[in-house]
Amino acid sequence: MVKMNLDPLQVMSGQVKELKVSPSSNGDSRGSWEEKDEFDQDHLGLTTKPKLPKPENAVTIAVSSRVLFRTEREQEVYLQKGVEEYLRYQIEHENEPFAPGPAFPFVKALEAVNTRLRELYPQSEELFDIVLVTYNHAHVGIRLINTINHHNLFIERFCMTGGSSPIGYLKAWHTNLYLSADADKVREALAEGIAAATMFMTENLTEVSESQLRVAFDGDAVLFSDESERIFKAHGLDKFFEHERDNEDTLLDHGPLKGFLEALGKLQKKFYAKGHRLDCPIRTFLVTARSAASSGIRALKTLRAWGLEIDEALFLAGAPKGPMLEKIRPHIYFDDQMFHVEGAAEMGTVAAHVPYGIAQKHNLKQNSNVGK
């Protein structure tokens, strides 16, 4: 198999047009501020950015600085010259904004959704709330703030841990999704019940929508548990099909990203309630290697029993996912198997690996045999 460079710090090609940014947040509670107070006024009477929601009312998306921005040069300084020289370099270049990274179009799409939500529900706190998470020392904060302002992003919440693990802070923020370039921290987050994924990209990035957030999910070990995948790994495809037919009416257990799909669904319903089902700015996709007739019905029955709607479902029966994802053009695609992540990246899709379930042991075994 062709070896791909899936370094999350790769150069991102293409530009994303600037969008009008709005606040972030989401949840089930009612907003605590009134429409007439949507914009604060400073001591000079000038309007400022909208108020932030309470974290418990928001759909909180925690994004590491290494996936939101391109920081490969800075990482090189850190690895070659150490932390003190790294901090000195950051301070010397604090007026030079970072370029967009793989998560940048995703975050811009979140903010575009927030703009639409504010128009329909000016009093609601149920929006996306973006938290920038970084292991950096606070000295680097000035450059990050300058970069955020340069790109016209609305990110007011920072978590700068100075090298410590951010997982405890993610729980305090009621985080619904954590995106990072650090696979170890992603696994740590998943172990704590936080939806998380390691983000990757390719140089030939496919252009994505600026007005509709498009999120694609694999099924087993992402939205669902890895129960069925374990059958396949242990006993093969025929036993897998037999197991799915015998358990057609038995719901699959939830996977690590079920909660994030639920959060997206709650926001979608807010648009539906205002008559915007057909032009909803959030669209979700199930892209699975399952075949429809042999094993797809159990997945669909599970989603229906959970009360979750998926806008489009693609059952590929083992066909490559990359070409389908190229047509979907999602801002992010989640899969538990690196083989599919690589295939998505080769076709220009920003893909994120969910290191969960039996496939991770299989991947480790394969990697241990490389070169033997």
What topology emerges from the helices and strands here?
Blueprint (H helix, E strand, L loop, with lengths): L38 E3 L5 E4 L8 E6 H4 L3 H10 L1 H10 L11 H17 L7 E7 L6 H10 L6 E4 L6 H6 L2 E6 L2 H9 L4 E4 L13 E5 L9 H9 L1 H10 L11 H15 L9 E7 L3 H15 L5 E4 L6 H7 L3 E4 L2 H9 L4 E3 L4 H11 L4
Parallel strand pairs: 3-4, 3-6, 4-5, 6-7, 8-9, 8-11, 9-10, 11-12
Antiparallel strand pairs: 1-2, 7-12
List keywords for this structure.
alpha/beta; 10-stranded mixed beta sheet; 38% helix; disordered N terminus
Report on this model:
The chain has 14 helices and 12 strands. The radius of gyration is 21 Å and the shape is globular. The strands form 2 sheets. It has a 10-stranded mixed beta sheet with strand order 5-4-3-6-7-12-11-8-9-10. Helix 12 (322-328) crosses helix 13 (338-346). It has 372 residues and is α/β, with parallel strands linked by helices. The model is unreliable at 1-47 and 364-372 (pLDDT under 50).
